[in-house]
Every structure is written in C-alpha cells, then in structure tokens.
Amino acid sequence: MATDNSGNVFDRVNNVYKGTIEEYKLIDLSDIFERYIKAYIIENNLDSEKDEAFEDTIADIYLEWLDKYNVQLECKPTDYFKPFTDAQLIQILIKYVMAHVKLPDPLIEEVVLRKENTAPLIEKILEYEDGSHFSLDIKLIVMNILSEMQYPLPLVHYMRFIEKGNQEDVLAQTAYEIIDEQIEQKDFAKIIAAYDTTRNEYAQKTYIDIMARFYGNNDAYQRIIDAFLQNVTDDNVAFYAACLAKFGDDRAVKILEGALKDNEFNYLNFTAIKFAIEQLGTDINIDRAFDGDEAYELLKNMPEE
Fold first, then answer.
1. DSSP 117-186
2. How many domains does the chain divide into?
3. Nearest CA-CA partner of 217 in 208, 204, 205
4. What's the predicted TM-score (pTM) here?
5. What is d(CA 133, CA 162) in angstroms, rounded to the nearest whole number?
6. Is residue 122 part of a domain?
7. CA-to-CA separations, 98 to 4, 61, 91, 106, in angstroms, rounded
8. Does pLDDT of 304 surpass 80?
C-alpha cells in the first residue's frame, strides 16, 4: 500500500475547473458496471423490467463484478485504486466530485481503509472557509467519510459551521446530525461552552438539541430548563419542551406542569408540553377548551380515514 504524506496535498488540486471526466482521466465505474449489466441481461435472456428476481440480485451481481478481473481496468474493480498514494487518493476523490461523477465505492473503501493516513488529509478540507475553492459537495462528502471512519469528531470545524448556519444551511445541518449521533461525554463541556457564548439563534437551538442527549449532566439540564422558561411565551416553547422530554430527567415535570397552568398556550404548544410531560412518565389531567384556535379547528374538522 503506497503512502505519501509529503508536501501540501491540496496545492492547486481544486482550481476552478469545469472539465469533463475524460479530461480528468477518471474512470466512471458506474458506467462500466451499467454496460456489464446490459451484457449480463442479454447473455442470460432476462427481461429486466419484468423479472423481479433479477432486481433482487443486482446487489449480489455488483459485488461479484467488483471482485472479477476487468479487461478495461486491467485489474479487479475493487483493486483499481490500491496502487495510488494516500495523497493521490484524495486528489482523485476531489476530482470526481468536481466532475460531477458518482464516487466509486472502491475509492471510498480505499480511503476509509487507510484512515490513519487519509483522515488527517481530508480533514484539512474543512479548514477552508465557505466560498473557498473547496465546494459544499466536497465538504459534505468529507464529513460523511470521516463519520464512516469513526474518526474523532472535528468539533472545531463542525461548531464553526453551526455558528454560521441557519435552518436551510446543509453544511450546518449535517454537522448537527453527525455531532448528535457521535458526540462523546468527553466533549460535552465544549458544546455547553459554545452554547454559552453564541449569539446565533439557530446555533443556540442546535446546541440545546444536542445537549438533550447529555442525560445526567446537570449543566446541560439547567441550560435546557432556562431556555424553556425564557421562551415559554413564544412558539419555540414546543421545541424546548421536546428537548426536556428527550433529556429524560423527570425533575422537569413540575416546571412543565407549572407552565401549562400559568400560561394560555395555543392548541399546538399546549399539546406539545402535555406530550413532553407524558414522555417523562407522568399522566397530566389539565384540559382546556380550544374552540376558535385555528390549528384545533382544522384538526377537528379533518375527515376521518
């Protein structure tokens, strides 16, 4: 297995260039496999549109094809990227994305297999600011590959994406999803500290949502409670009630019950808080009349299926 970690891998790798796949001299493995499947159908007298059993076997055929010598490639498809150095693998990955060609599975597998060397290289891509020569697509692919590698969370980058993000920001949303899934206890304090300093409302809500996973952490619990109480009179109250339910500490029941008794919530917010209380294991018998509430009337008048 070749390795080459010398120099700056990314120097001039990703110039703004709109060339075709042929100009990049990349191999479109999905196209080669598609031609293989067409030949397979003809050889075996199959009707791919009517033969449901054939559809079920495509995945198996693909795995067999990956491990079968290919004349055009002069090797097995699964071995095609093995001769390249670590740096070359990352360059090739970037070029595939720039050429808008589907990333070959063997390329991703080889990058993941060499994660000790390739992970630090692709993490460097995340250092570049938005709008740099590394596109959104490349950053998203890097984030997903690092996640597949189970590489230590590059929180400094992911929190930067969240701090600059909003609900429509794919980069920020992906960063949130990865952190929410993979955060470890040793990093809880970093999320709490980021929440304490951010002024971005989207980031505040995102960090609260992540902290809702920190069951048993009193610092996180107190911040979720405070956020709920600070937002009890607006429509964010349903979100923070859901975070308290997700956190799972039944100390929140009294605060949620008190909020229901002391505030005239609309139907949706009332229902969300009531549901959070029930999620925390407590039955709640507070009822209200919601005649005239727009959401209530809409739901009440919906025909039953």
1. HHHHHHHGGGGSPTTSSS-HHHHHHHHHHHHHHTPPP-HHHHHHHHHT--TT-HHHHHHHHHHHHH--GG
2. 2
3. 208
4. 0.82
5. 20
6. no
7. 23, 29, 11, 18
8. no
3-class DSSP state for residue 75? strand
HSE-CB at 101 with a 13 A cutoff on CA atoms is: 24
Give me the chain's average pLDDT, please.
87
Report the alpha-carbon distance of residue 174 to residue 219 in Å, rounded.
25
Report which DSSP code applies to 70. Answer: B
Domain enclosing residue 265, as ranges:
220-305
Question: Are 300 and 224 within one domain?
Answer: yes
Domain contains 286: yes
Question: Each residue of 262-278: pLDDT tens digit?
Answer: 888 999 999 999 999 99
End-to-end CA distance of the chain: 61
Q: Which ranges in the chain belong to alpha helices (H)?
A: 21-24, 29-43, 52-66, 86-98, 105-113, 115-123, 136-149, 155-163, 170-182, 188-197, 201-211, 218-230, 237-247, 252-262, 267-279, 294-300
